[in-house]
Fold:
Amino acid sequence: MKERIFTLPLCGNSWMPFKTAAEKLGVQVVVPPPITNETIALGARYSPEGICLPFKVIIGNYLQALDQGANTMMFYINSRAGSKNHGGGGGGMCRLRHYGHLQQLVMKRAGVDVDFLILGENGGLIGQIKEVTGRGTWEIIQALRVAIKKVRLIEMTEELSWRYRAVEKHPGATSKALNKGLEVLQGIDSFKELDGLNLESFFAGIETVEREPLRIGVVGEFYLLLEPASNCHIYEMLGELGAEVHRHLGLGEAILRYPPGFVLGKLMAWWLNQSIPPRSETAKIAEPYLTCSVGGHGRESVADTIRFYEAGYDGVLHLLPMGCMPEVTVRPILRKISEDYNFPVLTLSFDEVISEGAIRIRIETFVDVIRLRKERGERRHALPGS
Amino acid sequence: MKVGIPRSLFYYKHPHLWVTFFEELGQEVVLSPPTNKTLLEAAVRFGEDESCLAVKLVFGHISYLMDKCDAIVAPAYYGLQPGRYSCPKFLGVPDITKSIFRERIEFLRCEVDDGEFEPGMRQLAHTFTKDRHTIERVISRALDSRAEHKHRLHQRYRKQLASEKRKIVVIGHAYVIHDAYANLNLLAKLQDRGMEAITTDSVPPAPHESFLKWDFAYETMGQLKEVLSHDIAGVIVLSNFNCGVDAITVPFVEHELEQHDIPCMHLILDEHTGEAGMITRVDTFVDTVKMRERA
Structure:
């Protein structure tokens, strides 16, 4: 049997913890080259026309990784998420649930002979990893523990970078520090060392200026929130304009909220020293506007927008791939929230025809508008019922 | 009480079910007219621009019903088959209506999960009458009318199969194939050209296995399997632009048809009403089908 060389789709920095875990378990991994316009065009050429942007980018990733020697495409689907009672997450009513099968068909029709490993599709994640790696449960749990910790640390590092970028004196200093910090993180593969890491120290050398940054919350579709290449590096754009970005829906948060299994979920919360945010809370916050789950993270978008408003943010940015089923459904609702609360919400939808200039102009205008509002002390409406 | 039923989305899935249900409950039913120019314009005005045409249209129909009834029916179809689920855009309809329109209007919701109509119907009927016998009678009449409708469709399918004409199967959501104004009268166009247009909603699905989790997509694959066991001349897949479900399903349908060497055309609709493009494509497709037979 030929040796299996795995690859996975890029989604922000999520490849880093995955690679760590895979190496710990003795699995060969090829990380696809960074996403460029060429990747996206390549993916779009082979994908069905009507499918959403993440799918097209992923196919591009696979094809490029193939050139670098990968022969098994790995994908993860959380089959527990998305049902009526489970609420959000990617696995349910949204198209993500069918990604794995469609990927296989697309590759077959493109005449590419590859294997697929769809993790988590039928539950039993650990069992599947056992089968692939031939390692014991204990070893797998150890590897997962490091990976999950890393997921959270990467997320926290990114969050710090958004804070620093909004007040940096020399443009680009934060991005440099962030890259260095991520490199340090990637070099570590023991849980203890990761646990003792001081993330602030990555950014210690950055000179800052005295100014109060604007605070912008980001909500929307998971992939667009995570992968900078798919959203025209919007976080950097905002930071350079003096706006601090925040998002509730990071990778760690998503895994915790919709864990691949009850026991694994409990374990993860313990590793991260974090409690599992109750799902019912999101439903309750969104309830005045949306009474049921609409798949994906639609309900989260509604709830998070309200959360950002309550936390005193200056505006919300809603990102979605064009035609995204859950996010398109909630878009009129976000508009209504914006109207009711007198709270700026900008929706941007992305497809494979990405024009950075067009996005930049809209972001600059948005930032100008909310800055003006802030300077004028524009009145925010009270919450209904309060 | 005047109960409004938009003639779109769920109406086309079960045309008689909800009308019978509310009439049996002694309520006056107001059904919006078939889609027309005014309704389409309202749909474009109120609908979300990235939604599919069908979801835009439901808001057009609701805007028509707004001042003509006391409550609008919006069943929450979580899943019409055990273990499968519906399109999420359906579920959001009542909540989004609240966001789009300034007028307040009441919605009559009925949750349908795993294809179980009774529990939701019982709950809904309970708000109209407390009499248990009446409720059970209403539910059984409503479900009977649905079964009868299905039976009639299957009968029509068998008759069509026996026809001498060339058979073109039209695959699509019921609310796309049967909204004649929105799909520019495709079925009539096929009939005018001497074709027997079989719509998938009349086909009893053959038993099959599928990973597809949407009830509609799952059913389509079964119906496709059934029609492929007969002599059919071609397939037209009719979908709305930006239909999320079709983006996944159609590649599998096309693949299946490639294996069987059956011509297939994928028509994508939006609110555009120019007929010339459609006529050209239908003509070309019909010619292709005929030419293949001669070859």
In short: The longest strand of chain A covers residues 214-220. The two ends of chain A are 66 Å apart (CA to CA).
